[in-house]
Please model this.
Amino acid sequence: MTFTCTALLRLGLIVSLWTTVLAGTLPKPVLTVQPDSVVYKQTTVTFFCEGPTGAKAYRLYKEENQKLKNTEFLQNPKNQAEFSILKIDQKHSGQYRCQYQTHDGWSEFSDSLELVVTGVYSKPSLSAQPSPVVTEAGNVTLQCVSGQAYHRLVLTKEGPQKLSWMLDSQYNRYSGQFQAPFSVGPVTSRQRWTFRCYSFNKNRPQWWSEPSDPLELLVSGSLHKPTIKVEPGFVVTYTSAVTIWCQGTMDAEICFLHKAGSQKPLDTETLEKPENKAKFSIPSVTQQHGGQYRCYCYSSAGWSERSDTLELVLTGIYYNKPSLTALLSPVVTVGENMTLQCVSQEGYDKFILTKEDQKFLSSLNSQHIYHIRQWQALFPIDHVTHNHRGTFRCYGYYNHTPHLWSVPSEPLEIHISGLSKKPSLLSHQGQILDPGKGLTLQCCSDINNDRLALYKLGGVDFTQKGGQWTQSGLSLANFTLGPVSSSTGGQYRCYGAHNLSSEWSASSDTLDILITGQLPFSPSLSVKPNSTVHSGDNVTLLCQSTFKVDTFILSKKGAAQQPQRLKSKSEASEFQAEFSMSAVTSALSGTYRCYGSQDSSPYLLTQASDPVELTVSGSFGASSLPPSRPIPIDDSEIQDHTVENLIRMGFAVMILIVLGIQVFEAWGSQKRAQRAAEK
Model:
């Protein structure tokens, strides 16, 4: 052991405890040590032995084997001596005393000072049970856990008011480690509560382990609570960067971030001036970062209230993407109800619906739909307002990890329609098409719509086009969907809107597009009583199939009306439907075909039946529903006709002038004839 002293001169000898001194005749000195009596190995330690003015020598003793090691220094009279140990290690730990000498002899010994050296064993861990968050005057249990066997555990409180507790460790057979629970309290909000714990062997009580990481108790005090926010938002993608900001009052000095369920604060930061903000950065969020956060701030006046709760949600944890659709249509009239459907093949416990990834709308338990082997949730939205316009997404998650979500569904744009007049939707090629054929749907409105949009029910695409104007005052747009396939089949609607408004018109009537040849058989079609009948007779068209058909569809070539549909009936191992026509007219003459479909895919049809020609003789009868066909878009029809109209008006004025001249001349001739007769 190496001692140094700058003020004293020589090294003494080893003496025993019974060395003759004038013990008791002089007051005992005071022995202190810096930086502390518990120091980490390799630290420089200085002992201070303080006696009366005029002391000639000082001795520092370390207790070893019932003896004291004596180091004696002589110097000019002085009231304090310094004894330094460079780069201390565990052999320097132990009990120390000191004494001084005057002309009257040696003083009695100072009180004993214990020097503990840490860093000898691996560090234990320290946690708060159940949480480091404590209310004013509350109590908390701090758990110190060590992997060292047969050790005692020490808990120390750091700061101006130092405290320590010591307990025997207990073996936990589930974890295979040794632990001790320390009860701390009551806790006040006027000071910081920072703790560490150590372990040591009972046979070497001054050899301590590495210190545990510090544990700060977070006291919910009475000072003004800080505000907490997160950038870029509280719904973030897995592995993205996140910054949490905690803004305290002007006198706040330090802020702590805590995640709910954690037994330690997540991080500690001093506040940045002048905004008084603490910045907590997470370069790459992982699953452990999802959860609820609060921050606490401390100043010289004590602890603040806790901040409001901040939710941090991670998306992209599960790769099975749900799908989000609006039942019926993503265009909803103000005041009506809307239902959004979230569906996934993954068995998530819950689905959650968000709007613009900023506002949690609702979370619902998933329901298993057995016949499609999928899980879904239906989100009803009552009394739709303009605030519901925007982008929606849905996610799936499990009950045990509510802050870890799946990848998002594709965005669903919700549009709000008003009560303006609905447009009409027509097909250039009819409603029943063979695969590979071209298809153009035309949306037409007789009011001034700048934009027209087409939507397929159950889909997510909302296709918009600028309206074109016709000479007859209509606005229209053509939507090309061909060549058609099985995915084209379905129900379509269209809407109109003005550029100066975000509100869409009421929806057009639905238009069914049916694709043939999707079921590999054909039904048969026959006419009762005959294919040639007189006007006013009753006719029945019978559609039959030996294969399962849920619905039969009857179409007339060239007709603009929707095809007729009837549910099939099973008769003698056959499926059939009878389409009855009463008091037929010649307008019903034409070529008919029938098709079949199944309920699982009602817009995918069988191959067509053989055609049947129906002839109705007699007087021509008007159809109850006059055909309505798409308007051809021709550039000459939608061009500006101003010049043409001016020319026509010019010709009309010239004709009027000529007629006026002729009338005036006839009137003059008549007057001249009358005057000649009078003469």
